[in-house]
């Protein structure tokens, strides 16, 4: 892939940082190439609403190509960057191709961090992409469906237990939405279970939820969540996560639906630069957003590590957008032979929702909670959603959720049979345990890994068969 006659600015990532940088360069005498591994810009702050069936994926995403279609100096490439050759000024792609640049803006964002336990991901998906949101929606809805069919009380209780790990804004928003679904949305739809009896646990290793907020806002959010019916476990670190449950030190909790909202780490692209990174894998940059020793490269958004007034600039969308605009401005200044300017983050406030119509908001010195904070949250999110169609649809969906207490996107997609088997405790190379058997009841017990689970389950079945019970479809010996 070759560049044209104008200097080529390659932007990796069409999220809040990259897209805002590309748009800010619309009048610059450069050729902009925006590279993303997804074809869409995603409004991540509303992902939890897709995960909890309030919104559809297309309500919160927009094809990047469409967003930039009127920008004559911009092109969009679909592809995944795997490394950057700083000396050769090329971005290498997964398919072996590479893109040459004169100037580079890296805005590849962040991904989940399982604190050294990548094996937990299979049982506790995080929320970062549309696929993640759809997977969580699937698991949540299937858990209710499997509970409706389940005769064993212990297993049914495990199916109706939902654990959200991590009480930052995403965890709080997920937990609030889950409680409301069970208490208000699904209440009348099932015949054999009472969805309102579902337990939603929000687990946090720190002493309070929303740690980045003031203690008052955090206490207000806690009260609002508890009033909704959410169970909080504060000061409890998760020590094990398995297909049937989680452990918090001595305490084990049987659950089939775990959602990970606990940690993030920078895109692995940062490692390819061979420069110093912080503990979360983010790139240490200079105050003008450039890479030390490489003024032609800027790193922005969640991928960047920069302090301001002794505190790290937070990984939030306003910071990414402001950095995107600043990177474009500095790039133009450098090309015009003017000195580049240091970046300064302007914190306009933070917001987190709790269920259908509650929130906490910190706007400068103003702190509000409850319905008023939710109205502010609603206006801000509608304003920043890209595309008139999306704004209109989302407002309509929210009105529907608010007035009808309904969730329009309650569709289970994917291999439902397999999902039901997983939820009911039947996995590959395992047996279907007859309803009513003690083994089935014991299957609700949390386990820490597939191999140990198979051995344990085989023993449980053996015990039950010794007592005269009958298990059908036992496939092969345990490991
Ligand atoms: C569930 C959730 C809820 C959030 N809620 C809020 C909120 O309420 N308020 C708030 O301010 N912030 C919120 N955030 C944080 C906010 O979304 C991020 O701070 C912001 O998106 C960072 O912007 P970015 O441009 O750095 O990265 P992103 O927006 O993540 O964009 C990165 C882009 O790079 C692309 N990409 C990644 N790797 C590659 C690669 N190797 N090659 C090519 N392309 C690549 C991705 O596809 C993506 O399009 C939330 C985040 C999440 C996950």
SSE blueprint and pairings:
Blueprint lengths: L7 E5 L3 H9 L6 E6 L3 E3 L4 H5 L9 E3 H4 L6 E5 L2 E5 L4 E4 L4 E3 L2 E4 L3 E3 L17 H20 L3 H7 L1 E5 L3 H17 L13 E6 L10 H14 L2 E4 L5 E3 L2 E4 L2 E4 L2 E4 L3 E3 L16 E2 L5 E2 L2 E6 L4 E2 L1 E2 L2 E2 L4 H19 L14 E4 L5 E5 L2 E4 L1 H14 L3 H17 L11 H8 L14 H5 L7 H17 L13
Helix pairs in contact: 1-8, 4-5, 4-11
List keywords for this structure.
479 residues; alpha/beta; FAD/NAD(P)-binding domain; 3 domains; six-stranded mixed sheet; four-stranded parallel sheet; 13 helices; 33% helix; globular; binds flavin-adenine dinucleotide
What would you note in describing this structure?
Helix 1 runs parallel beside helix 8 (317-335) and helix 4 (130-149) packs across helix 11 (416-423). The chain contains 13 helices and 27 strands. 46% of the residues are buried. It has three domains: 8-37 and 79-112 and 264-335, FAD/NAD(P)-binding domain, CATH 3.50.50.60; 118-262 and 349-404, FAD/NAD(P)-binding domain; 426-479, no CATH class. With 479 residues, it is α/β, with parallel strands linked by helices. The longest helix has 20 residues, at 130-149. The protein is globular. The model is unreliable at 427-436, 446-452 and 467-479 (pLDDT under 50). The protein starts with 7 loop residues before the first strand and ends in a 13-residue tail after the last helix. The strands form nine sheets. A six-stranded mixed beta sheet has the order 5-2-1-9-21-20, with helices on one face. Strands 13-12-11-17 form a four-stranded parallel beta sheet. The chain has a three-stranded antiparallel beta sheet with strand order 6-7-8, with no helix packed on it. Bound molecules: flavin-adenine dinucleotide (FAD). The site of flavin-adenine dinucleotide has 34 residues, from helix 1, strand 2, helix 2, helix 6 and helix 8.
């Amino acid at each position: 892939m070759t560049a044209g006659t104008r200097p080529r600015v390659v932007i990796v990532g069409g999220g809040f940082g990259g897209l805002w940088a590309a748009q800010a360069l619309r009048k610059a005498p450069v050729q902009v190439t925006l590279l993303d591994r997804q074809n869409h810009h995603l409004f991540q702050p509303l992902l939890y609403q897709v995960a909890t069936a309030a919104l559809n994926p297309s309500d919160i995403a927009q094809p990047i190509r469409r967003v930039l279609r009127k920008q004559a100096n911009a092109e969009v490439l679909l592809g995944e960057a795997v490394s950057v050759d700083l000396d050769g000024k090329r971005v290498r792609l997964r398919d072996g191709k590479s893109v040459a640049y004169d100037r580079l803006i890296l805005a590849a964002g962040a991904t989940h961090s399982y604190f050294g336990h990548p094996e937990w991901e299979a049982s506790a998906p995080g929320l970062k992409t549309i696929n993640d949101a759809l997977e969580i929606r699937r698991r949540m809805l299937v858990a209710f469906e499997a509970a409706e069919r389940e005769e064993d009380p212990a297993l049914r209780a495990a199916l109706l237990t939902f654990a959200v790990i991590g009480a930052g804004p995403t965890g709080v928003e997920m937990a609030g939405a889950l409680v409301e679904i069970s208490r208000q949305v699904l209440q009348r739809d099932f015949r054999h279970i009472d969805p309102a009896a579902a337990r939603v646990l929000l687990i946090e290793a720190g002493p309070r939820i929303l740690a980045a907020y003031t203690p008052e806002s955090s206490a207000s959010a806690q009260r609002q969540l508890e009033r909704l019916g959410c169970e909080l476990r504060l000061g409890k670190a998760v020590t094990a996560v398995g297909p049937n449950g989680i452990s918090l030190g001595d305490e084990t909790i049987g659950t089939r639906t775990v959602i990970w909202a606990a940690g993030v780490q920078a895109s692995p692209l940062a490692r390819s630069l061979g420069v110093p990174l912080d503990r979360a894998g983010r790139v240490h940059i200079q105050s003008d957003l450039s890479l030390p020793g490489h003024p032609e490269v800027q790193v922005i958004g969640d991928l960047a590590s920069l302090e301001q007034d002794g505190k790290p600039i937070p990984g939030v969308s306003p910071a990414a957008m402001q950095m995107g605009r600043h990177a474009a401005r500095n790039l133009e200044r450098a090309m015009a032979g003017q000195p580049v300017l240091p970046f300064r983050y302007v914190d306009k406030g933070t917001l987190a929702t709790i269920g259908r119509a509650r929130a906490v908001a910190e706007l400068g010195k103003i702190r509000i909670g409850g319905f008023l904070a939710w109205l502010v949250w609603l206006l801000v999110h509608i304003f920043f959603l890209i595309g008139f169609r999306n704004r209109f649809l989302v407002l309509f969906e929210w009105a529907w959720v608010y007035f009808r207490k309904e969730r329009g996107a309650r569709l289970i997609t994917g291999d439902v049979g397999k999902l039901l088997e997983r939820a009911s405790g039947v996995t590959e190379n395992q047996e279907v345990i007859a309803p009513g058997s003690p083994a089935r009841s014991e299957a609700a017990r949390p386990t820490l890994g597939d191999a140990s689970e198979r051995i344990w389950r085989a023993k449980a079945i053996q015990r039950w068969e010794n007592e005269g019970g009958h298990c059908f479809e036992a496939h092969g010996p345990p490991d």
